[in-house]
Design a protein that fits this description.
This protein is an alpha/beta fold. The protein contains five helices and four strands; from the N terminus they run βαβααβαβα. 36% of the residues lie in helices and 12% in strands. β1, α1 and β2 form a beta-alpha-beta unit. The structure holds iron/sulfur cluster.
């Protein structure tokens, strides 16, 4: 099984912004994928209205959306296609924009918090091939 095809029906998106908190959002999302908690998708694909990504975001999934700050670029992108989501803002979770080191301890702590807070909405389902994966085989 490819690494990106774990995670059941959870898809994770990060704003991946240029700020430290944007980078942390990206790395937290990747950690949630690597640990098998969620499957990756591409925020740019949704923002570009690429049909496969829009269909994935609006399908029978739990979208976990991580924004670095309250500008909430990722949330606004998903809202444009009418997607439901569980939303996290890292500056609401104690991180300071422009003053947070991008280091493993921070990423691990945030990933664990998101994993715990997202677990209640999850329906486990097997995903064994790229056919059911939002990544499109990337
Ligand atoms: S949510 Fe904040 S950190 Fe993320 S891309 Fe937007 S402005 Fe940058």
């Amino acid at each position: 099984m490819a690494e990106c095809c774990g995670g059941g029906n959870r898809l994770v998106y990060a704003c991946s912004g240029g700020a430290d908190v944007g980078e942390i959002a990206d790395r937290v999302a990747r950690k949630l994928v690597k640990t098998g908690f969620a499957r990756p998708s591409c925020l740019a694909g949704v923002g570009g209205h690429v049909p496969g990504f829009v269909a994935s975001a609006t399908g029978d999934v739990v979208n976990i959306v991580i924004d670095g700050c309250s500008v909430a670029c990722a949330l606004k992108t998903l809202e444009q296609v009418g997607a439901d989501m569980t939303h996290f803002v890292l500056t609401d979770m104690g991180l300071k924009k422009g003053r947070t080191p991008v280091e493993d301890a921070v990423i691990d702590r945030i990933a664990e918090t998101i994993r715990i807070k997202s677990s209640g909405r999850v329906e486990e389902s097997p995903a064994s091939t790229h056919d059911g994966c939002a990544c499109g085989g990337c």
